[in-house]
UniProtKB/TrEMBL annotation:
Membrane topology per record: Multi-pass membrane protein
Protein name listed in UniProt: YetF C-terminal domain-containing protein
Family membership: Belongs to the UPF0702 family.
Keywords per UniProt: Cell membrane, Membrane, Transmembrane, Transmembrane helix
A Pfam cross-reference name: DUF421
Compartment(s) where it occurs, according to its Swiss-Prot or TrEMBL record: Cell membrane
Origin species: Pseudobacteroides cellulosolvens ATCC 35603 = DSM 2933
InterPro entries referenced in this protein's UniProt entry, alphabetically: DUF421, UPF0702_alpha/beta_dom_sf
Domain named YetF C-terminal: residues: 79-211
Length: 229
């Protein structure tokens, strides 16, 4: 039993490291060859877990081999546009200027029902409002509305807006993020003074504290045990 536990733990750690080395992507964002590698890695890891008679190295070597192959293909895709088209495929236009391109639907084996479903998911119900609908290489459908149907932006009505950067997380679950404090040219003394002015005597009492680009502090205290139940 202990052997099975140790083998499973080792294989789990190897798979986590391998998947991390492949890059941060959601399943829906994987290219076809990346998805194939992910599935094969999970299968290769499962066999030695279930059968202790198979040497552990027999599962590790194929997993590492697949990782190397995946990294090589990714590198080739980065270096060569032509190779990228062969390995990953090319985007295909399914709707152009409010008209469905039937030939491209057949080429991608994409049914009209599939197309309509994806349009509804994207919040678009009227095909005539679409300038382009593009099937990306990872299977996602990108929609570009006609200019008359796009939401109005401040630029369209000539309104100047203030810069909005990403808020900096200063405290998460009671722990100070000193890197972000330094990035904002602030220190812990400033933070403590700000919290004291808001009635917080101990940083550990805070669940989350952030600072936006306008210098406004957002604060949420930790709830007391049993509160909200």
């Amino acid at each position: 039993m202990l052997v099975v536990f140790i083998r499973t733990l080792i294989l789990f750690l190897i798979v986590v490291v391998v998947m991390r080395a492949m890059g941060k992507r959601q399943i829906g964002q994987l290219q076809p060859f990346e998805l194939a590698v992910a599935i094969m890695i999970s299968e290769l890891a499962a066999v030695p877990m279930q059968n202790t008679g198979i040497p552990l190295i027999n599962g590790i070597i194929p997993i590492i081999t697949l990782l190397v192959a995946q990294l090589l293909l990714s590198l080739i895709s980065l270096k060569s546009v032509k190779a990228r088209g062969i390995i990953c495929g090319k985007p295909n236009i399914l709707i152009e200027n409010g008209k469905i391109i039937e030939a491209n639907l057949r080429k991608e084996m994409y049914t009209l029902n599939d197309l309509l479903e994806q349009l509804r998911i994207k919040g678009t119900s009227n095909i005539s409002d679409i300038e382009y609908a593009i099937l990306e290489t990872n299977g996602q459908l990108s929609i570009i509305p006609k200019s008359q149907k796009r939401p109005i932006t401040p630029e369209d009505i000539k309104i100047d807006t203030q810069y909005e950067g990403i808020p900096l997380d200063l405290v998460i679950d009671g722990d100070v993020n000193y890197k972000n404090l330094k990035r904002a040219n602030l220190d812990e003394s400033w933070l403590i003074n700000q919290l004291n002015s808001l009635g917080i005597r101990n940083i550990k009492e805070t669940l989350f504290v952030s600072l936006d680009s306008a210098g406004k502090l957002y604060l949420q205290k930790k709830s007391k045990e049993g509160e909200g139940h």
